Amino acid sequence: MTGSPLMPLVAGLVMAAWLGGAAWALVTGLRMRRGARILGTQAEKLQQLLDSAPALPMMVRPDGRIEAPERLADWLGLARMPNFLADLTGADKGLTEDDAAGLARDVAVAQKSGKAFTRAARAQGSSRTLLIRGAAATSALSEPGGVILWFFDATESQAEIGRLGQEAARLARAFDALSGLIEASPFPMWHRGPDLRLTLVNSAYVKAVEGHDAADVIARGLELVETSGGRSPLALAASARDGKAVVTRTVPATISGERRMMRVVDVPLGDAGVAGYAIDIEETEQVRSAFKRFSDAQRDMLDLLSAGVAQFGPDRALAFSNQPFQRIFAMKPEWIADRPEFDRVLDRMRETGRIPESRDFPGWKAERREWFTVPEGVAEESWLLPGGTHLRVVAQPLPDGGLLLIFEDRTEEVQLASARDTLLRVRTATFDNLFEAVGVFAADGRLNLWNTRFRQVWDFEEDFLATHPRVDVLAEAAGERLTNPARASLIRELVRIATVERQQRSGRVALKNGKHYEFAAVPLPDGNALFTMLDISDSRQIERALRDRNEALEQGDKLKTAFVENMSYELRTPLTSIGGFAEMLKEGYAGPLEDRAVDYVAAILESVARLGLLIDGVLDLTQSQAGVLPLELQPVNLIAMAQEAAKGFTDAAATKSIDFAVDLDPSLGGIRGDAKRLRQAIEHLLEHAIAGTAAGGRVLLHGSGDDRMARIVVSDNGRGMSAAEQARAFDRFNKAESARNGGDRLGLALPLAKQFAEAHGGSVTLYSEPGAGTVVSIELPR
């Protein structure tokens, strides 16, 4: 062997193999060492991770033995971890008996069925809450029947869960309350889901759309408002959702069969959809419309006021001004339309000279600016403008922070007050210097005012009057100065009637000094009574003289009337004899007469007839003046009577070539009266017309009437009458009438016609113009 040449080779191969194995073992050992170091590091990391984990493991073997970290003993309140599951509970330590028993049952179930479980447990004597989750252990961790338990410290989680539970309960109650509030809401409310379909409606919504119930409305998708501005409710809700902004609109809607104005609001709720509600603003709109009408009417009314009115808003800009304000301060409407600020308005007033002169205008303006916040509520000033204008300024702060200004032009009032003061002084001086005695008694009967004449008439002392005596005291003192002291009571009674009964009375008294006074008590508008006394001593004497003279004149007039009446009768007797003898001579009882004698007799008869008519007229006038004109009243046909009267003047008119026309309308009719006197009245008018009309003239007799009056008119185109002649036309002894008739006899035609017409309750009217003619009209009542 030693000498064999293969031995070194074999030895070399063995050594090489050994070296190779050693090298491989070294490399493998180094690799395993490095792997063990890595595994140890990972184990340490896993242990640290496990120690810092919020959950601690516990391995329960099939025989009930347990393996767990010592930290778990601290969680369970134990000094050290026991060996068996049953030892997790004890006296005031570990789990409670109920939790330990329950955990044992859950572990037993997991061992048999492999079912996982979760249980909450509490350690005795500790506020820690543990959450235990168990499951069957894998074969890598334990033999079959093992259970792995994980203990979680759920103290904070349970507290949070409890808080969240309370919050959830609170939110549930709030949701229930909100749901009840929405349901009880008097106006429609609804909710739309993300797809904008209705998911919730309240009873008011159901009632508004006349649905059966909420489910029916949601199922049918009944909308409260169909369209608004051409857009559907869904489109408007989508606009609110997409724009993430509240959409409000005012639209009409039919609610319970009535057309109402509604304000509809869509509120985006993000992913929860869109909520909406509708408020009935019909009454609000009516109130707003009424308020606008009231505001417009108030502004129209303010424009009609004489006082200037300006209103400033909370921003102190001019919000309104009426026409008098613009006129007083010479402000143009276009300038006011820009809503100038308060200070600018004052500047404008100063430019136009419409504010009082002030050396410190900025300070003056600052004081006026305080009107907006005046604590007293109202500020009032008087402005005297450079032109002499007086303005009363009232500043009223408004509740909204604005200001109301009223400018009243009191220039005329101030002037009137000055004039009134002057008038009062003049009246006082006049009152004190009146010739009449004047006293003013108050409603309680006391003497308030008196003039000097009043004191002098009654010879009262000034001190006595200064006590303002009552009327009874005054009357008693005045009685001593009267001729008849009992008449003093009349003064007291008249003052009482004037102050209490508000009636005017008068009377007369005579004083012992021979003076006579007429007094009167007159009620005044202020409730007082004015007592006046006028000295009528002279007028009494004149009155007495005039009365005596009037009695004498009346007696003379009676004598004259009797004389004329007697003379008329006395003249009629010889006139009748003259007429009778002339008739006998005319008829030839005294033998044949020569032609000249026949003319003389005819002239005598004509004169007798004229004198007889004159005597009858004078007698009629005398009787009418005395009021004893005899009338025989009976129905009278005025048409027939006027025709008969006209026949008597046909020849006279033809003799003077006068065109005599008669125009009697059937409406003239008749009246009740004296036919003889009425005929004489017409004859007198015709006589007057023919006598005053020249040859070739025209005379018209016209008659007409109505239900109330009959009218007879006689007109001519003669020479007419002047104004002076018309004034004396109805005078009984009118010379002008005699001249008109062309003779010397008295003009009795018109006076007699007037007397006869007035005796029947009628009237006579004369119209005449020189050179144009005369119209005389008789109107007789039916």
UniProtKB/TrEMBL annotation:
<dbReference type="InterPro" id="IPR036097">
    <property type="entry name" value="HisK_dim/P_sf"/>
</dbReference>
<dbReference type="InterPro" id="IPR005467">
    <property type="entry name" value="His_kinase_dom"/>
</dbReference>
<dbReference type="InterPro" id="IPR004358">
    <property type="entry name" value="Sig_transdc_His_kin-like_C"/>
</dbReference>
<keyword id="KW-0597">Phosphoprotein</keyword>
<dbReference type="Pfam" id="PF12860">
    <property type="entry name" value="PAS_7"/>
</dbReference>
<feature type="domain" description="Histidine kinase">
    <location>
        <begin position="566"/>
        <end position="782"/>
    </location>
</feature>
<dbReference type="InterPro" id="IPR003594">
    <property type="entry name" value="HATPase_dom"/>
</dbReference>
<dbReference type="GO" id="GO:0000155">
    <property type="term" value="F:phosphorelay sensor kinase activity"/>
</dbReference>
<keyword id="KW-0808">Transferase</keyword>
<keyword id="KW-0418">Kinase</keyword>
<dbReference type="InterPro" id="IPR050736">
    <property type="entry name" value="Sensor_HK_Regulatory"/>
</dbReference>
<keyword id="KW-0902">Two-component regulatory system</keyword>
<protein>
    <recommendedName>
        <fullName>histidine kinase</fullName>
        <ecNumber>2.7.13.3</ecNumber>
    </recommendedName>
</protein>
<dbReference type="InterPro" id="IPR036890">
    <property type="entry name" value="HATPase_C_sf"/>
</dbReference>
<dbReference type="InterPro" id="IPR035965">
    <property type="entry name" value="PAS-like_dom_sf"/>
</dbReference>
<dbReference type="Pfam" id="PF00512">
    <property type="entry name" value="HisKA"/>
</dbReference>
<dbReference type="Pfam" id="PF02518">
    <property type="entry name" value="HATPase_c"/>
</dbReference>
<dbReference type="InterPro" id="IPR003661">
    <property type="entry name" value="HisK_dim/P_dom"/>
</dbReference>
